Amino acid sequence: MPILPATLGAWPVASAHPWWLSLTVTLGFAAVARLVRGVTISGAIAGAVVAFLLYTCAGPGGFVVLVSVFVLAWITTRLGYSRKERRGTAERKEGRNAFQVLANLGLATLCAASFPFSGRRLFLAAATAALAEAAADTVSSESGQAATEKALLITTLEPVPAGTDGGISIPGTLAGVSAAVLITLVSAGVGLIDWPSSWICALAGVMGMLADSFLGASFERDKLMTNNMVNFLSTGVAAVFAALFFVLFV
Fold it and tell me: Which of 50, 68, 136, 209 is the most buried (most CB within 10 A)?
């Protein structure tokens, strides 16, 4: 019996893959992520849980999208790393911990896990948008810091050093938008969403990325929110907008 009730695009969301195959693939992914220092030990454990649930609930396509997000984040985090390290804005060399992993990927996982129980593609669109936002946020921040020394605070447009909470730059923003579009195209290509929904997810992902900057400028700078809280809420913004657009236009 298929685990899921629907198929989309080139890669079926419905999957008869046994649980042990999902577990083996996701444990292998977590091990590789740890070996390349993309995550800490706790981050690898959290990542394995996220990957298993995405693979089980959204099919192999969901897992492929997750890997794509990880690869983009890993590459861009290492762009200009020495410069970021001198500024004190570089990610830790040992990688992201469990709280960071769940802050960025937890909501997408919850959306994907809701799909088998509802059968509504809206949840897959929301999951895709949340993943697109997670990629866009990391890529925009890391690429922007690697490309320029200055940024503008999104709320006031005052010049601030690159890496400042809520700071945006043209190179970083363009890179973030590109990342959101790429993750959405991958999602459509593997059949997680259908092609007509791709613009919805890309747009929602970009809106979530901008919300992240706004929350960073308005709350994180004043220590009213942690970075993990901002990241989680921003993926939520992307997921909500994707669900709303899906209802209105699909």
Answer: 136
